[in-house]
Amino acid sequence: MRELDVARQAAQAGGEILASYFRQGIAMRLKQACDLVSDADVESENAIVAVLQEAFPNDAILGEEEAKADVTAERLWIVDPLDGTTNFAHDSPHFAVSIGFYENGQAQCGVIFNPARGDWFHALRGAGAFHNDEKVSVADHSRFDQTLVGCGFYYDRGAMMESTLATIRDFFGQQIHGIRRFGTASLDLAQVGCGQFGVFFEYELSPWDFAAGRLFVEEAGGRISTCRGTELPLEKTSVLASNGLLHEAALQIVKKNHRL
Prior knowledge:
The chain folds into 2 domains: 2-136, Fructose-1,6-Bisphosphatase, subunit A, domain 1 (Fructose-1,6-Bisphosphatase, Chain A, domain 1); 144-256, D-Maltodextrin-Binding Protein, domain 2. Helix content is 34%, strand content 28%. It has 8 helices and 14 strands. The chain has helices spanning 2-24, 39-55, 85-89, 159-172, 185-193, 207-210, 213-219, 247-256; strands at residues 29-32, 35-37, 60-63, 75-83, 96-103, 106-114, 119-124, 128-131, 134-136, 148-151, 178-180, 199-205, 223-225, 237-242. It has a 7-stranded mixed sheet with strand order 3-4-5-6-7-8-9, sandwiched between helices. A hairpin with a 4-residue loop joins strand 6 and strand 7 (119-124). Helix 1 (2-24) packs antiparallel against helix 2, helix 4 crosses helix 8 (247-256) and helix 5 packs parallel to helix 7. The N and C termini lie far apart (39 Å).
């Protein structure tokens, strides 16, 4: 698929900029409380957009930083030029470029690239999910006491944080192996697809956070929805991803604490 090839080229272009800044160190600035941005985010997005526009000049592009588009566009690219900005700011090599391509509202391909580790994840509708070009699948755990759960915290330190903490407590009550919070939603979703997490949840994510990861989970054999069990919209929403076998049971936990 040409779109997948171009997505990989664009992710490489953005990733090279991030890797350069990561090696050199970079000053961060606040968008709002606890929400960081840097020149690296913006330059990475510009490089990604340039590659996409050269290949598909008529396509719409929605980016986290500057690129704006109507999510109902027939052909739509959704770009996160630096997912895991706080990790990046604190010299943690757990961050990624995420690019998803949608046609008529349906994800067709997605690429997630961690340039610090050289890790590539991609998915193509109907063809599967791949980590460094090796096909992957979700875990086969059917019980909570067999699995590890991933979660994310939005920047809100009030009611949403309390909901997340309550949900973590309830998952521990199901004798899960543990909770992990790595701070990069695209890579968290990749971990579900690769079978490392049985469940991942976060009460608020933006489309660029899950645009590529949702297809990765689905093509790896998993399931993804909102934390209320509805289909993911291309707007800010809660996200629950799982290996499929645990989805309904996990949904009962995350839905109970989904107060917002």
